[in-house]
Amino acid sequence: MLSVTAAIRQRISVRKFLSTPVSESQVHELLDTARWSPSGGNLQPWRVIAVAGAALAAVIEVAHAELARSADGVPREQGADLVYPPKLWEPYRSRRFQVGEDMYALMGVARDDRTGRLAHVARNFEFFGAPVGLFFVIDKRMGRAQWAHLGMFMQTLALAAVDMGLGTCMQEFWGTIRDSLHSHFALTESDLIYCGMSLGYADPTAPVNRLRSARAPVEDFATLRGF
Ligand SMILES: Cc1cc2nc3c(=O)[nH]c(=O)nc-3n(C[C@H](O)[C@H](O)[C@H](O)COP(=O)(O)O)c2cc1C
User: Fold this and answer.
1) Which residue from 65, 106, 114, 132 has the highest number of Cβ atoms inside 10 Å of its Cβ?
2) Distance between CA 120 and CA 214 in Å, rounded?
3) Residue 59 CA, ligand 1 centroid: distance in Å
4) Closest residue to atom 13 of ligand 1, CA basis
5) Ligand 1 mean position to 157 CA, how many Å?
6) Coil, helix or strand for 173?
7) What is the pLDDT of residues 105-141, one digit of tens each?
8) Shortest-distance Cα residue to atom 28 of ligand 1
9) Of the candidates 158, 152, 133, 150, which has an alpha carbon nearest to the alpha carbon of residue 49?
10) Which of ligand 1's atoms lies nearest the C-alpha of 194?
């Protein structure tokens, strides 16, 4: 078993997976661990839909149908405000830009290769080849605090996955087709699919999985007083 610190430091976003299956019992075990995440008032405001096999293929089909409907291979943005604030400012703008540049450089996709970049973006809709996809659902009536708690749940699950030798990629991108997913899963009026997550065994040979995104040093974001 990994230390929590080791799992935190080892976790990265995996964007190419092996086809090696992940069993239902493995997924169940991850969820069983993640349910111990904290939440204000112990509301536990998360719900999860996990898909594999035919259910995963069916979701991918929904996504491909959306792509086919769009003019440029990118789905119409739905709820983009749930992803980034408009007109992202510094230092956030540069960080976002940099991680994208670093990723495409590793993959050998040039900056002006719009087709190549869109092809990679579209791989989001195949869970980057992962055998399992997860969707995180929250009740629309929940507030910002509960959204934060859902985030804790997602991170706990991702860390537990690392401990199991599995990789993940959280995927807000699935939110771009949340209306179609909502219908596909026959969710209720108050349900909202926030985010997807790919889950599987990382392809160790894939250049994209060598990406180690940068982080600002502690001094940039923390103030320590009274020590
Ligand atoms: C909630 C959330 C949603 C994300 N959505 C996507 C996504 O749709 N597609 C993707 O390739 N990466 C996505 N990412 C991955 C981020 O780009 C990544 O976490 C960040 O660049 C830091 O890199 P790391 O996860 O490898 O440490 C998401 C991350 C988070 C936390």
Assistant:
1) 132
2) 21
3) 20
4) 171
5) 14
6) helix
7) 999 999 899 999 999 999 999 999 999 999 999 999 9
8) 170
9) 133
10) 1
pLDDT at 70: 83
* Nearest alpha carbon, ligand 1 atom 30: 170
Q: pLDDT tens-digit profile of 153-195?
A: 999 999 999 999 999 999 999 999 999 999 999 999 999 999 9
Rounded to two decimals, the pTM is 0.96
- Burial degree of 163 (CB within 10 A; 0-12, 13-18, 19+): middle
Measured CA to CA, the distance from residue 201 to residue 131 in angstroms comes to 9
* Cβ-contact 201, 167 below 8 angstroms: yes
**CATH number listed for the domain at residues 4-71+126-212:** 3.40.109.10
Residues near 107 by beta carbon (within 8 Å), at least 6 away in sequence: 116, 120, 207, 208
